[in-house]
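Q: Okay, next protein. This is Tyrosine kinase from Ostreococcus tauri. I've checked the sequence twice, so it should be correct. Can you predict the 3D structure?
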Amino acid sequence: MSQYAKEPPPEWESKWTWRTLDGGDRAMRGAMAHKLFQAPELHDAARRGDQRKVIDLLDRRAFGVDDPDPGGRTALHFAVGFGHESVVMELLRRNCDIDKRDDWMKSPVDFGLQAKHDRCVQAIRLEAVKRGLWGGKGRVAPLKTYWEHCYNMTSEEVEEKVRENAEEARKNYSRQQENDTQSYQEQLKSRVKQAIEAKARGRKRR
């Protein structure tokens, strides 16, 4: 078992690193530390909302509009995730893939929902309608969220399930508290009774 507590060998590489979406580094060491989250130039421009840079890179064919970063995300993921509507519209105008999934099975609309960039989400939804896409049944229909894609559940259904589970957990906790209190009271009564009986026996011996 001790081998698992040792440092990994020098040649070991991990796909999952500590590089953050906004370019920060969470202290991962080694040559591979920046591989997954180090955004290519196009993706970085989309993240920053630099529409001119995005247009320049695409016009020069330095990147394809749907080129992925090492994590499988496109420029649209970044533009939507950081709420840059002008960049989103530019990418949509160039017929980008609006339902591309990254290595975590998340599409651009998932990024928009998570960051609460409603205008970007709405823009993608309208584009999906124009393109005749279908399949989703939740609040981002006709697109599918991560939950629909992986578990066939809408975000609303997931939220309802979470609420139901939380309520059930609360009830279970309350029942457990009541049982614990009752058990404690019974034990206390038993100990008091035993103490009284022991005291009475002591008096009889005298």
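A: Here is a summary of the prediction. DSSP finds eight helices and no strands in the chain. The CA atoms of residues 15 and 155 lie 28 Å apart.
Q: Noted. On to the next one.
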